[in-house]
């Protein structure tokens, strides 16, 4: 890999041992990938504060500097971690103090995370604590090179914002934070941003549930390729696209899609493919739609719902407002809990707008920082949950060993109020 002068200097230790270790990691990583060079990044979204048993042990024995070296730089060196070189944010992590007594998340992990925030915050890690950093002020511009983790955020950044990032890992984002560099390969390069598969919807896709189901279909058929989707599509909003992308990255590994006339790198169908449009297309019709619905509901047996989970990826303010509207003047079934996951900044706005109070008066909760999949917890005794998120319906049954129902927001709120799943296609 060719290194620029500033990169060589970092590698040689001109900016201290931590930066040298970070550059060493990027060189090893880039060479393994076949990257020819590094590119400059000014926007890193990674995970530094998430508490894990391995991290807790390292911190107990050696402190936070060493924990960062081992976990975020893949180095066993003993050195001080300096201030991050470029703007960096923490994605979702574990639940915080406000969830104690609400979720069964261990208090010990909450304490470790608070320590982590106190260490990383002053070193330039913005504690956004959400899988949707683009909803709370971290909004890269079109063409901007970034180093982001979190599959649902990566596919949003590439596709909806036209920014450029691969799906990075804990170590590569740690190294990018200290150097402002990341290997220039994959989604950073023009030639890897054109569509590969044409998918045509032949049934209407214009509700939140429709976009989730369509995304789940698209991910399943294209896996890690780059779909271009057309057909009977309504005009999606931010929540539809966040749901669609998260679903494509759950059933498959999509990091970039195009919707001609909607997403920025696809003003036309031809532009999405860089010229010739493939003659073959994959059709999403009634049969495929029903298949997706049945797949997402094949983990459900009992219709007695203990838990309703909304906000995956983390909810927008509009989604929180909708839940409040649906719960106004109602009470949850005594045996059913409802949690809506949201970025903490949006929870503050929901508080000011009165939405949180309405939801809590009904017996529901607006929780921040994390989610059941990330923190691996649900309300005590949960056997059956319902969700409007294709991603959670895909992952949570395996993570927590519980049954799942997938449906609309209205069906989920109905299940929270009645305790019974009555969803249908
Ligand atoms: Fe976010 Fe958790 Fe879903 S991190 S994307 S709410 S699985």
UniProtKB/TrEMBL annotation:
UniProt keywords, alphabetically: Iron, Lyase
InterPro entries registered for this protein in UniProt: Acnase/IPM_dHydase_lsu_aba_1/3, Aconitase_4Fe-4S_dom, PMDh-L-like_dom
A molecular-function term among this protein's GO annotations: lyase activity
Domain Phosphomevalonate dehydratase large subunit-like: 1-414
Keyword Lyase found: yes
Domain of life of the source: Bacteria
Protein name: Putative aconitase subunit 1
Source organism of this protein record: Thermopolyspora flexuosa
């Amino acid at each position: 890999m060719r290194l620029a002068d500033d990169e060589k200097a970092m590698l040689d230790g001109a900016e201290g041992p931590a930066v040298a270790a970070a550059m060493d990691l990027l060189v090893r990583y880039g060479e393994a990938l076949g990257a020819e060079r590094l590119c400059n990044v000014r926007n890193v979204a990674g995970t530094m504060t998430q508490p894990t048993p391995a991290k807790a042990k390292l911190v107990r024995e050696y402190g936070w500097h060493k924990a960062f070296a081992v976990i975020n730089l893949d180095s066993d060196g003993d050195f001080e971690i300096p201030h991050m070189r470029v703007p960096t944010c923490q994605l979702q992590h574990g639940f915080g103090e406000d969830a104690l007594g609400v979720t069964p998340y261990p208090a010990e992990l909450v304490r470790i995370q608070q320590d982590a925030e106190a260490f990383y915050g002053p070193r330039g890690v913005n504690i956004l604590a959400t899988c949707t950093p683009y909803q709370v002020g971290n909004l890269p511009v079109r063409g901007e090179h970034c180093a982001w983790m979190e599959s649902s955020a990566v596919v949003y950044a590439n596709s909806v914002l036209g920014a450029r990032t691969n799906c990075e890992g804990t170590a590569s984002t740690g190294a990018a934070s200290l150097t402002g560099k990341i290997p220039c390969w994959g989604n950073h390069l023009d030639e890897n941003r054109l569509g590969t598969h044409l998918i045509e919807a032949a049934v209407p896709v214009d509700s939140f549930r429709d976009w989730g189901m369509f995304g789940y279909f698209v991910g399943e058929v294209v896996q890690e390729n780059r779909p271009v989707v057309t057909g009977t599509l309504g005009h999606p909003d931010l929540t539809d696209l966040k749901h669609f992308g998260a679903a494509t990255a759950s059933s498959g590994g999509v990091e970039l899609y195009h919707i001609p006339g909607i997403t920025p790198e696809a003003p036309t169908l031809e532009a999405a493919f860089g010229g010739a449009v493939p003659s073959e297309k994959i059709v999403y019709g009634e049969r495929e739609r029903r298949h997706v619905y049945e797949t997402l509901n094949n983990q459900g047996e009992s219709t007695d719902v203990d838990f309703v989970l909304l906000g995956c990826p983390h909810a927008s303010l509009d989604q929180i407002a909708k839940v409040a509207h649906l719960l106004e003047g109602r009470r949850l079934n005594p045996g059913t809990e409802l949690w809506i996951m949201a970025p903490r900044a949006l929870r503050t706005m929901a508080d000011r707008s009165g939405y949180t109070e309405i939801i809590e008066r009904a017996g529901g909760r607006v929780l921040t920082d994390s989610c059941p999949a990330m923190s691996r917890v649900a309300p005590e005794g949960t056997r059956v949950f319902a969700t409007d998120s294709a991603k959670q319906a895909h992952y949570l049954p395996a993570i927590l060993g519980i049954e799942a129902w997938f449906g609309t927001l209205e069906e989920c709120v109905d299940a929270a109020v009645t305790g019974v799943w009555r969803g249908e296609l």
